[in-house]
Task: inverse folding
């Protein structure tokens, strides 16, 4: 009996030791996984990021602007194929927020001020970016960029300057994928019918409008009547800030601006310009064009597609065509280029996941990632033919992807432009996008951004009234005084210091 009792005690002890060892091993394995000693690699090659100490996946809140596309039935911004792809590839979870179409900046301001836990905010308004900087609402990103190899490959060196403030980088500036914006559009069939040659000089343009007056009620019409693209470029004032005689100038106070106003006032007095330009909206201008009332206008390539489509239905024998803008006495000509930044990806100062937010943005800069977002799955949404991407009919169910295009490329833009029918109009306008607002290449100086809106309003008011003759050209000097009163000289000084000491070097 004594031997049997001893054997039973030994067996119980062995069982207890085995259970202890199993428990210890399980605990050690769990701890190793929680500390990141064991990770799983996703299809895109990125290891899932884990929240510190908790072992839980980090959820990033991303805020983007609205778009015209809609999600597929049963899907939304946080339930779709792209979100699933981003979760799997980056290792993060997401709360994707789309701003409302109406007053998006107001909504964003409320979210930023209320302390909402935002981690990535996509900005397209440079003045809003400057405002957030002055309020200390954005986090500097310099310490994270060295650990973002994909980002450093994708972002060109010159794109960092516009998002650098007081020596620190406050956004990932995504370069623009195109430069063309607008151009002069004419009724080419009327030109041919009336024997009007394509105008070159400013006087040629005036003569062409005089001839068109015999044909239509509005020889020239546009939306707004202050700084009219193309005509302003011929006087060297096609952009707000430009380099003149190796110095940055505010072009609208230069002597050439007074010459521009004199020229435009002459066209207006001769009834060559639609008197309703100051109150025209895009819809009313379109209506005038498709009802045979306009001989010449300024249109953006994105606007020209729907206008031309309806125009061809209403006027089957008509022809709208882009022509070169007028050339001034000094050989100046052109339209302003689109801004150099597609968008600015920022991390709010209140974010609790700054490092993780930058890891995610670095992930978005991978070629395979922005390719998937832009084009979908190869073989399903697109195919490659002779090195060119061809979209399939299934791609029509992928259009909501624009809500996730944080990183754009010229290739992606070119495909979208071609697929949506804009390419014929865009291509015609590319040669005339020649003017760059030099301030767009500078850091977001508060002295410049804080007064930009106010200066824009006062410029529009004076220029419109001088062109229409509501106030005499002599009031131009009064306009300059208003510019000075709004600290225009201080803004110029800051830009000139930057231009001389940083940009030229």
Result:
């Amino acid at each position: 009996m004594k031997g049997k009792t001893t054997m039973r005690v030994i067996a119980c002890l062995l069982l207890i030791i085995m259970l202890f060892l199993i428990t210890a091993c399980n605990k050690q394995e769990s701890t190793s996984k929680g500390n990141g000693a064991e990770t799983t690699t996703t299809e895109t090659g990125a290891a899932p990021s884990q929240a510190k100490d908790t072992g839980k996946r980090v959820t990033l809140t991303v805020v983007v602007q609205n778009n015209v596309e809609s999600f597929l039935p049963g899907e939304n911004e946080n339930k779709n194929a792209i979100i699933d792809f981003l979760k799997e590839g980056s290792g993060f979870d997401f709360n994707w927020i789309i701003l409302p179409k109406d007053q998006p900046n107001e909504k964003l301001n409320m979210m930023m001020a209320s302390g909402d836990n935002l981690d990535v905010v996509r900005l397209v308004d440079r003045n809003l970016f400057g405002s957030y900087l002055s309020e200390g609402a954005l986090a500097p990103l310099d310490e994270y960029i060295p650990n973002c190899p994909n980002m450093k490959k994708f972002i060109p060196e010159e794109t960092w300057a516009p998002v650098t403030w007081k020596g620190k980088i406050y956004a990932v500036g995504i370069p623009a994928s195109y430069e063309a914006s607008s151009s002069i559009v004419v009724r080419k069939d009327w030109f041919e019918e009336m024997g009007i040659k394509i105008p070159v000089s400013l006087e040629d343009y005036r003569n062409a409008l005089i001839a068109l007056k015999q044909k239509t009620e509005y020889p020239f019409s546009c939306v707004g009547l202050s700084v009219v693209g193309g005509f302003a470029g011929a006087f060297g004032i096609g952009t707000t800030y430009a380099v003149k005689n190796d110095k940055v100038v505010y072009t609208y106070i230069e002597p050439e601006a007074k010459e521009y106003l004199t020229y435009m006032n002459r066209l207006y007095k001769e009834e060559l310009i639609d008197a309703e330009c100051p109150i025209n909206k895009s819809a009313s201008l379109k209506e005038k064009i498709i009802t045979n009332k306009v001989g010449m206008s300024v249109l953006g390539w994105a606007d020209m597609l729907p206008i031309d489509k309806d125009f061809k239905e209403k006027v089957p024998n008509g022809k709208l065509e882009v022509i070169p803008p007028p050339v001034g006495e000094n050989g100046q000509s052109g339209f302003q280029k689109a801004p150099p930044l597609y968008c600015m990806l920022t991390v709010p100062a209140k974010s609790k996941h700054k490092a993780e937010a930058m890891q995610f943005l670095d992930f978005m800069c991978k070629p395979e990632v922005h390719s998937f977002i832009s084009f979908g799955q190869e073989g399903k949404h697109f195919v490659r033919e002779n090195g060119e991407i061809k979209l399939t009919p299934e791609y029509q169910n992928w259009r909501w992807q624009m809500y996730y295009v944080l990183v754009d490329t010229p290739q992606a833009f070119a495909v979208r432009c071609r697929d949506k029918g804009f390419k014929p109009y865009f291509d015609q306008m590319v040669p005339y996008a020649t003017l760059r607002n030099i301030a767009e290449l500078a850091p977001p100086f508060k002295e410049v951004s804080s007064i930009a809106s106010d200066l824009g309003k006062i410029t529009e008011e004076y220029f419109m009234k001088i062109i229409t003759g509501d106030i005499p050209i002599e009031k131009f000097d009064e306009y300059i005084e208003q510019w000075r009163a709004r600290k225009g000289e201080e803004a110029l000084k800051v830009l000139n210091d930057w231009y001389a000491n940083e940009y030229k070097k």
Summary: Residues 59-174+342-419 form a domain with the D-Maltodextrin-Binding Protein; domain 2 fold (CATH 3.40.190.10). DSSP finds 17 helices and 17 strands in the chain.
